[in-house]
Automatic annotation (TrEMBL):
Residues 4-100 form the CoA-binding domain. The gene is sucD. Succinyl-CoA synthetase functions in the citric acid cycle (TCA), coupling the hydrolysis of succinyl-CoA to the synthesis of either ATP or GTP and thus represents the only step of substrate-level phosphorylation in the TCA. The alpha subunit of the enzyme binds the substrates coenzyme A and phosphate, while succinate binding and nucleotide specificity is provided by the beta subunit. Gene3D superfamilies: NAD(P)-binding Rossmann-like Domain (3.40.50.720), Succinyl-CoA synthetase domains (3.40.50.261). This is Succinate--CoA ligase [ADP-forming] subunit alpha. Belongs to the succinate/malate CoA ligase alpha subunit family.
Amino acid sequence: MAVLVNKGSKVIVQGFTGTEGSFHATQMIEYGTNVVGGVTPGKGGQTHLDRPVFNTVNDAVKNTGADVSIIFVPPAFAADSIMEAADAGIKVIICITEGIPVQDMVKAKAYTAGRDCRLIGPNCPGVITAGEAKVGIMPGFVFKPGRIGIVSKSGTLTYEAADQTVKAGMGISTAIGIGGDPIIGTTTKEAVEMLMNDPETDGIIMIGEIGGTMEAEAAKWLKDNMRKPVVGFIAGQTAPAGRRMGHAGAIIGGADDTAAAKMKIMEECGIHVVASPANIGKTMAEALKGAAVTA
């Protein structure tokens, strides 16, 4: 089962007929994801990729029973798309769109907070439960089924961690790309907590980056709640203070959100911290062996 998405998920694509939506929906379908339709205003009643197109998310939910949505909508309209999905009763909303205005995301986050739904992203690669459902833009072939969960702010490092985990003789339960924007729906701590409570996940890889306090908050929660080994990595170790690196949220604002400060907190809280992403898979394999011996 893992978390967030599985083979039973009924997925719709918002921005279904656009270039990005079409390309990634095709990849998701080929992976085996149960894509039941999509939404493009003004194109309701048409068929695309052998799936029905609806004018609104509400129509899509009523006709397909969809419970998961992935959003490929331009930044100016993406926050409205998030709120529309929440209003229609979608349980897991995954927003891929990058560059949504911060003020729009403030409203969208507040709107989803009062409803029975989980927002992942924006500016994220999505969520994949290996061998069951890919709801995102990640290369599916990298993710082989197993029992290691991944939580990451970085898309490419998510794929790197998954590849190393598989090559080290393990596999992936669920990988969650939480997104790198200043305001996102699901924090590192919330994602880690989901995987810590998942009976099909034996270990967790937590990938963060400079800027913000999410990794420290997750580490402090793990200090009291770590029942499985956690391997951590922080990207941006050579980044100068005050300069944004890649993601909009990846900017050092003070002494506590540097890579070194985050790594120190993580180590103090019992996380197996690696200085290089090249050591993620090897360190997780060793941590699992150590946990088995202790048990």
